[in-house]
Amino acid sequence: MRKLLNTLYITSPDRYLSLDGENVVIQEKGKDIGRVPLHNLERIVTFGYTGASPALMGKCASDGIELVFMSGSGRFLARVEGEVNGNVLLRRQQYRYADDKDKSLEIARNIICAKLFNSRWTVERTLRDHPLRIDTDKFSTCSQQLKKSTDNARCAADIDTLRGIEGEAAQIYFSVFDDMILQQKDDFRFSGRNKRPPKDNVNAMLSFAYSLATSMCASALEAVGLDPYVGFMHTDRPGRRSLALDIVEDLREPLCDRFVLTLINKNMIAPNDFVKREDGAVLLTDNGRRTFISAWQKRKDDELRHPFLNEKLQWGNVAYAQALLLARFIRGDIDTYPPFMWK
Predict the structure, then answer these.
(1) Regarding the domain delimited by 6-80, which CATH topology (the fold level of the hierarchy) does it fall under?
(2) Which of 38, 220, 255, 298 has the fewest C-beta atoms lying within 10 Å of its C-beta?
(3) pTM of the full structure
(4) What is the pLDDT of the chain when averaged over all its residues?
(5) How many CA atoms, within 13 angstroms, populate the side-chain half-sphere of residue 37?
């Protein structure tokens, strides 16, 4: 497994990035406030609006360092990349699979079954750890419904049916998400998933985490030679990283949702870390983003044993492991794509 290098996050919107030798220089109001060597970075993610110098962009492109521009809410805007080094034979086979309804459905079914499996075990984990603080009958019913949805997804006859099963299961799962919030209930209530823009503190964090995870998946797919824009579950759309959105599906619950719940239930995030705009959108403040990203980085460094590979790796490398497994399947090295299923 590859070495997990550092990601530099720039969370303040008024900071400009430039290049000085082998260092990225962080400037604010024309003054240097920090510098970081490039040699141990694999990615720079900036939530600022003042941008980066052409020299830094060129250096990142030539050195294979991803430079990602995000909006204040965590929405992907653009990224700088150098020469595409994807395996042309692998990508040609990927495109053939994407055009083959049966092959696409096979991969999509595996992904959605894993997503629903992970949703169920997120529910089961709360049922196991906090039986005296929740409605156990409600959670048990939800778990059984998700199990049934998983069985139905495994037998879905076409992609539209699969999407319908996934959508209904998501409603079932999110119907108990508010009950999994055990602390700070007055400030972190969840009445349902909303986005573009998120309308409450919980949805703001979920959207932010999903954006970070999707960027990780896009980078991992390119690292193994796949095209992140051509997927199997999500349809092609200009500028849409459809395969990255496919791969992130089974990482949402174990990586993102549990992380957001931990921040709330361990009082690591506070209501004053959010701001509500005039249009009703709720966003993390600069301080809130710093708190979130600091905890996110620590989470990426935590180790687990991959359920399929049976190897120890960091959470920050799970997306790479899944991209590698998908590439092996497309090349014909393994019989099926093994999605990430985590209890």
Answers:
(1) Ribosomal Protein L15; Chain: K; domain 2 (3.100.10)
(2) 298
(3) 0.82
(4) 88
(5) 3
